[in-house]
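Suppose a colleague, Dr. K., hands you the sequence of a protein chain of 225 amino acids and asks what its three-dimensional shape might be. Before reaching for any lab equipment, you can write down a predicted structure in token form. Begin with the sequence itself:
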Amino acid sequence: MQSTLKTPSMNQTQEHLEALQDIRSMMKKSTRFLSLSGLSGVFAGIYAIAGAIVANYIAHSFSDDLNYYDGTLVFEKYMDSIHKIYTYMFIDALLVLFLSIGTGFIFSYRKAKKTGQKLFDHTALRLFINLIIPIGAGGVLCLILLNHGYIGLIAPVMLLFYGMALLNASKYTLDDIRYLGICEIVLGLLNAWLMGYGLWFWVIGFGVLHIVYGLVMWIKYEKGK
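The predicted structure, expressed as tokens, is then:
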């Protein structure tokens, strides 16, 4: 007897490919947090630029009372003005942070509701843990630098650790986050080399890049959907 091998038809092949795509999509949704909204990045960038403008105004308001040397402050003089600057800058940074987090939550919640996904699950928790560890370490290091008077190093350290946090968290969310993280790291290294331009690098890293990234993500994943 002669056996014959049946070859799958074009329809069967197409069905198998669609099934594989469905399985891949479900696996991706189960292991990655996909509710990040591009618009939240745009607003975070706008808040960062506004915060930098306020910070620049604060610094210039007390510029006559400060002495700078190689990016560090002379703490023996003008302590009252220095404390005021720290207080105002801290309040400014907190406002930017809370506005960014609040707006990000609102837009991500809306996207998750629209796509039928959960906003808080084990994937979101893993994303948060991998994001917060480098950011927390960078924040502690910035406080240490501030305590020792190395003001010029704070901006590049923030950019570096933020970039590393994005890289660390990118495996639990959209791959595009990785490219934003790389850009932040490059900016941090450039800022460490070009000391004294921290505010400008802050505007580019936390402001312009977030706006550009947010618009790209919105057009790529959300517009018209």
